[in-house]
Amino acid sequence: MEFEAVIGLEIHVELNARTKLFCDCPNNPGDEPNINTCPVCLWFPGAVPRLSQEALEKAALLCLALGAELQPKSAFDQKVYYYPDLPKGFQLSQAHLPLSRGGGIDITDEDGTTKRLRIHHIHMEEDVAKLVHEMEGRVPISLVDFNRAGAPLVEIVTEPDFRTPYQAMEFLKALRTQVRYAGSSECSMENGTMRVDANISIRPKGTGQMNTKVEVKNMNSVRHVGDAIAHEISRQSACVQAGETVVLHTRLWDPDKKVTLPMRAKFEGPCVPDPIVPAIELSQQDIKALRSRLPEMPAARAERFVSQHGLTGEEATFLSTDPDVAAYFETLLGQGIAPRTAMHWLTTQLIPAVRDRGQELGTTPVTPARFAMLLKMLSNDEINANAAREVLVHLFDSEESPDAIVHARGFKQVSDRGELDSLIDRVLGEQPSAVNDFRAGQSKAMGFLIGQIMQASGGKANPKIIRELLAKKLEKM
Predict the structure, then answer these.
(1) C-alpha pair distances (Å), 407 with each of 403, 412, 440, 460, 475
(2) In a domain, 448, yes or no
(3) Cα 144 to Cα 151: distance, rounded to the nearest angstrom
(4) I want to staple 121 with a disulfide (CB 3.0 to 4.6 A). Which of 98, 171, 192, 395 is the partner?
(5) pTM over 0.90
(6) What percent of the chain has pLDDT over 90?
C-alpha cells in the first residue's frame, strides 16, 4: 500500500521586543540566570500583568506580513499544565480568541508548481522558564532559570496542508524571510528564536481520512525539520505495514542518530479565559495604521530589482531574501555603483567573506561606504579585479580607506601603454612556442600569454589594455 503524509506545523517565534510580555523586565533570556525577574514574571501574590504595547505591535506586524487577518477582538486564556518551568502553574496564551486567523505562504514545490500552504491562526503567548539539567556528584539535579519566563512569543499554527519534508522546509525559509522583513524577530532556529514542532500522520494515498498524528520536537535547523519529518513518515509507514497501531504521543528528534525517539504521552490541560489581562480590541483604523508600517516585502522588492535595475529573477530573489543584503545592495546603488557591479561583487565576494569570518552583513567593518569606494576604484581602472579582492581582505582587518590601502601596499593598476608595451614585448620574446601556437590557430594561447604578462607585472597590469595591445601585436606577427 502506498501512503502519503499529512503534516502540520506549530512554529513558536520569539518577538524581539525590549521587555517581556506582561512586565518591564528586559527580554534577554541569555543573560546571567535569574537576573531579569520581577514579582509579575515570578507570579508573586498580588502581582498584576500588563500587556506590552511593543510586543503587541510586533506580533500584529508579523501577522500582517504573513497575510493573516487581525481579529477585532482577541483575549488571553490560562493554559493549565504542571511543569516546573511555569512559576504560576499555567501559561497565558490565546487559545479561544487568537490575534489573527488565516494567511499563508506560496512556495515553489519540487515539480516547479506553486503551492499555497495555509495558516490556521496566529496567537500570542508567554514563554516558560528554562530548565538546566546537571549532575551534582552522582545525583542528577534540575535548575530553573526564570530569565525566559514571560518572554513574548507568537505561535503560528498551520493547516495540515504539507505532504513532504521539502514543502515544510521551503515554508519555514519563506516564513523566516517575511518575519525578518517585518522586523518582529530574527527567526533563528540555531539561536532558539524560532522553534518548530511538526505534527505528522500518514494515510493511504488518494484518501481524505485523518489518522492519529505524532508530534516531533527538538529540531534546531530547517534541515533537521526535513530530516525528522522524513524519518517519521518512514517509521509510521513501517509501523502500519507491520499491523501495529500509531499511538498519539510526542517524540524528540536525535540529530546524531537521525531518528525520532519517544518523549512522553500527549497531554492537553484545561484552558480557561484569564480574568485579569484585558481583551485586545483593534479597530479598522488601528489595523490600517499597523499595515502602513509594513515595509516593502521581499516579493515586491525582487520585482522592483528586476524592473528598475535589470537583474534576473533569480538574482533579484537572492538579494531580496535577506533584508540586510537587500538594504546593503540598495545603499551601494545610492553610492553610485552600477547595479550589476554591485550585485556581482556583493554576492560573489563580500557575502562569502563575511560568512567565512562568522560576521553579519549589517555589522561587518566593510561598510557599504567603504565597499563602494573600492568598487569605484575598480570601475575607474585604478585597480584591477585581483587587486580589488586583495584590498577587500585588508578592509576586514584595517580601518584604513581602500585608497590608503591601495597606495600603501602598491596595488595601483599599471595602465601606462608605453610601460605595458615593453612588458608585452618581453613576454612574447620569452614565449615563442605560445606565439607559434596562436599563429597556428590555437586561441587558448592568447589566454596563456595574458596570464604570463599579468604574472610578469606582479598582477598590477590593466588587463583591458593588455588584451588590446597584445591582440594588435599578434595580428602583425
Answers:
(1) 6, 7, 42, 12, 36
(2) yes
(3) 15
(4) 98
(5) no
(6) 70
